[in-house]
């Protein structure tokens, strides 16, 4: 009799325990589905401002980035002349290895404003000295544009200096090759460019020309010009410069690569295809600025070519 009761009690307890475990398992399972539910939310990386990106695209084309970084901005071998040097314009559609998580804006700022890579090492041949005057607004626009590009994958070698390049560098024959050495790194970027259409905007945009046409815009032999490279022209309103040119002549030359006398500009030496993509208002501003320069006689042709 007592044995039967004990057995029943035990049986009941067993069932109860079983039910409790079942309930616990159910609670766990039900809560788990809610706690682990995948809501499949995907936040798009900072929606680029389309207007800013469009301005960046215009800058990337008209300021010559494509000339050295490739038409698709996927990078390009610019010079492969070992034992002198091999210089490769980087892929701007992807962040460099090891820095995938860093921001494009930081990369642009480092390269354009300081002439250094993501490890703060000097870039070879990147004309950052001329780009260092770009405003924060313009660098933001370029960053916004490059952020919209789909990655391009070209097999590209790394840039490297060969023994002859190093010897020339040490011998002072490659001045400007390392822009980082000539940039004032303490100078902070201006917030925005001067208003479009003004002489001041022209001065701002024409900084790009100084790498070849020199600080006084009177031109002359270019440091980086190889043999057979024509000297940069005199852009000042002097008889040996653009004194006889009209604004129209200037704009037509930049758009077509032809001087008023019909002769052709050397498109390898003078990046007219890039400059010619600047808007009428930009070219008008540059013209106003060039006209405001003191006329400077061009250095004699002797020694211009090397
Ligand atoms: C005259 C050729 C030339 C022009 C014009 C030029 N670049 Fe470069 N750029 C280079 C070269 C060459 C390198 C790589 C140098 C190296 O590897 O040391 C480089 C490197 C860079 C880098 C650094 C990549 C890295 O390592 O993180 C950025 C960013 C860059 N350029 C952006 C631009 C932008 C934007 C423009 C236009 C506003 C531009 N470049 C115009 C030649 C050029
Ligand atoms: C990479 C070097 C380089 C840059 C950058 C450059 N130029 Fe030139 N430019 C030259 C060279 C070299 C010539 C001479 C071409 C020739 O003789 O065929 C030239 C010629 C010209 C001419 C023709 C003048 C003449 O009398 O033949 C004009 C105008 C001109 N450049 C304007 C500009 C402007 C404006 C900028 C900047 C927005 C600029 N260039 C940037 C190298 C450059």
Helical amount: 40-55%
Ligand set: heme C
CATH topology grouping of the largest domain: Cytochrome Bc1 Complex, Chain D, domain 2
How far apart the termini lie comes to 121 Å
Strand order of the largest sheet: 1-2-3
Mean pLDDT, to the nearest integer, reads 91
Number of domains: 2
Order of helices and strands: HHHEEHHHEHHHHHH
Query: Which secondary-structure class do the elements indicate?
Result: mainly alpha
Shape descriptor reads elongated
Unreliable spans are: 302-306
Query: In the CATH classification, which architecture of the largest domain applies?
Result: Orthogonal Bundle
Number of strands: 3
Q: Just give the CATH class of the largest domain.
A: Mainly Alpha
Biggest pleated-sheet summary: 3 strands, antiparallel
Number of helices: 12
Radius of gyration: 31 Å
